[in-house]
Amino acid sequence: MSALIPTVEGCPPLTPLFTFGVIADIQYADLEDGFNYSRTRRRFYRSSLQLLKNAQRSWAESAVRPDFILQLGDIIDGFNKGPGASERALDTVLREFSGPAEVHHVWGNHEFYNFSRSALLRSRLDSSALHRDRGLSGDIYAYSFSPAPGFTFVVLDAYDVSLLGREPSSEQYGHAMDLIKLYNNNDDLNCPPVLEGLQRRFTMFNGGFSQEQLDWLHALLTVADDKRERVTIASHVPVHPCSTDPVCLAWNYDELLAIIRAHSSVVCYMAGHSHDGGYCQDKDTGVHHVTIDGVIETPPDSDAFSTVSVYADRMVLKGEGRVEDRVFLFPS
C-alpha cells in the first residue's frame, strides 16, 4: 500500500503529515463460531485474533508505518466473562498490540460486559494516562491528543450515561435506568422498544454522553476553532442516524451532533459498534461520519481494518477486506 497521493498531473506525490490505523469490534474469545443476539449473523470469535494479526502485519510492513492505532472498542467479547476468561482473553489480544505504534483504546459495551468502570480505569485499556484532562470527573473516559501541529483527536466515552459498568446502587445507574425506561418497557432491555425508527436506540447495549462530558467537548472545540485546528472525534457508538442502523445509535446522539455542528474545527467522527459499517457526510457541515466494519463478523478469509493518511486538506482511508476506501475532504 502506498501512502502517497498525487497532487496535479505531472507533479510529485504528497507525503502524508501522519498516518494512523483503525480497527473495530474485534470481540475475541477462545470459542467456536456463534451468532449475534438475534441469531441472524455469524460471529467468528476465535479467528478474529488472526484478523488482528493480519492488520498488525500490514501496518508493520507498510512503507509509511502508522503513528498510532485507533482501537474503536469491543476488544474482547462478553462471552469471556462467564467462564472467567476476561483477563486471559485481554492478555491474548493486547500481545498483538505490542508494536511500536501507540494504541488509543476506545471503550465499548463489551468492555463493560467484562470489567467494571473502576477496573477499566486501572487497566491497560486506559490509554488516557499521558493525555488525561483533569477538567473531567475521575471516571469519565474522555481525552484529547495531538499527533501533529494543527490536528487534534478526541476520544469520547459513549457509556458515560449507561446501565453498563455502573453499580446498580449508584446515582448514575438510577439516572440511566430512568432514561431508558421512558422509551423501553421490555423485560429484556437489550430488546429494542420498537421494530423500526430512531427509538430503537434505547437498548441496554447503547449509552450516551453526560452533560459534563458535552460541556467539556464544547470547551475543547471552542479552543480548536480559535486555533483553526482539524479535529477528529473517536467513540464506540455512532451519532449520525445516516451512518448506522438506528439500533446502534447513541441515546443522546442529537445533543452531540448539535455540538459538532456548532464548531468549525470538527472534520470527522469515527465509530464502531455497527458491524456492517456505514458512512455519511453531514449535509450542513461537511463533517464525515464513518462507522468501521467489525472484525467479529468478518469471515476468516477476509479482513476488516484500515489505514488513514492525513494531509493538509483531506484524510485518505485505505480499507482492507470489508472496509471501503474513502477520501474525506476537509470542510472549507
Automatic annotation (TrEMBL):
Q: Which residues form the Calcineurin-like phosphoesterase domain?
A: 19-276
The record's listing under PANTHER family reads: MANGANESE-DEPENDENT ADP-RIBOSE_CDP-ALCOHOL DIPHOSPHATASE, PTHR16509
Cofactor needs: Mg(2+)
Q: Which InterPro entries match?
A: Calcineurin-like_PHP (IPR004843), Metallo-depent_PP-like (IPR029052), MPP_ADPRM (IPR041869)
Annotated GO molecular function terms are: 2',3'-cyclic-nucleotide 2'-phosphodiesterase activity; ADP-ribose diphosphatase activity; CDP-glycerol diphosphatase activity; manganese ion binding
Asked if the record carries the keyword Metal-binding, the reply is: yes
Its family remark reads: Belongs to the ADPRibase-Mn family.
- Quaternary context: Monomer.
Species per Swiss-Prot/TrEMBL record: Eleginops maclovinus (Patagonian blennie)
Q: Which UniProt keywords apply?
A: Hydrolase, Metal-binding, Zinc
| EC number(s) on file | 3.6.1.13, 3.6.1.16, 3.6.1.53
Keyword Zinc listed? yes
Write the protein's name.
Manganese-dependent ADP-ribose/CDP-alcohol diphosphatase
